[in-house]
Amino acid sequence: MLDDSSTASGVYGEDGYSGTRLEEILPIQFDLERDNTSVALIIVLDKSGSMGGQKIELAKEASKAAVDVLLDDDLIGIIAFDYNYYWPVRRQRASNRSDIMQNVSMIIAGGETNIYPALREAHLSLTEVNAEVRHVILLSDGRSLPDDYEKLVETMAEEMMTVSTVAVGNGADRELLENIAKWGKG
C-alpha cells in the first residue's frame, strides 16, 4: 500500500527506485534485466477526488517509474479515471518518455470512483495488441461502484492478460483490489 508518508524522488532505475519502498509496493522491479520480450502495459490510474494531495502525486510517480523501466519498443498507455475515464497517454511506444511524463504530470484529482469502465477500456485496448506480455496495473485508493469485475478480469486472464493492483492509502477497497489481482493472475 502506498501511504501518505511515502516519498518518491525523480530518479528511476537502478540508481533511483531500486530497493526502495516504491519498488516493494509496485508489481515491477527497477533493477530487472530482461530479454527482448515484447511488453504492452496499461496503467489504470484513479484520479478521483479522494486521491487529492500526496496520493495522486505518488500514483503519478509510480506511473512514471513504470514507464521508465520499459524498453523503447514496449507499448504503454495510461487511463485516468474518476466516474468517467480518459487517456492522458494513448497507447504508444515507451520511447516517447518526455511527452508521456509531461502528460502524467498534468493529471488532476477530482470526481467519484468508478473503476469498471476504465478497466474495460484497458481490456479492449490490449485485445488489439500482439505482445508477449500484456499487463494492466490498477492504482486506486477508493471504493468503486459495483459491477461484474470478476467476469471482466477472468476474461482478461483467459486472453493471456494479467492484472495487478496497488492500493493507495488506507481507504482503498482492499477486498476488491485483492480479488481483481487474484482473478487477473497479477
Through-space gap between termini: 15 Å
Q: Can you tell me the overall shape?
A: globular
What proportion of the residues form beta strands (DSSP E)? Answer: 15-25%
Radius of gyration: 15 Å
Could you give the order of strands across the largest sheet?
Answer: 3-2-1-4-5
Return the average pLDDT rounded to an integer. Answer: 86
The beta-strand count equals 5
Structural class: alpha/beta
| Secondary structure: helix percent | 25-40%
Q: Specify the number of helices.
A: 6
Q: Strand count, sense and closure of the main sheet?
A: 5 strands, mixed
What's the SSE pattern?
A: HEHEEHHEHEH
- Runs with pLDDT <50, length 5+? 1-13
Short description:
The chain is of the alpha/beta class and 186 residues long. It contains six helices and five strands. The chain has a five-stranded mixed beta sheet with strand order 3-2-1-4-5, sandwiched between helices.
Please write out the topology.
Elements (H helix, E strand, L loop, with lengths): L20 H5 L13 E8 L7 H15 L6 E7 L3 E9 L3 H9 L9 H13 L5 E8 L8 H10 L2 E7 L6 H10 L3
Parallel strand pairs: 1-2, 1-4, 4-5
Antiparallel strand pairs: 2-3
Helix pairs in contact: 2-3, 4-5
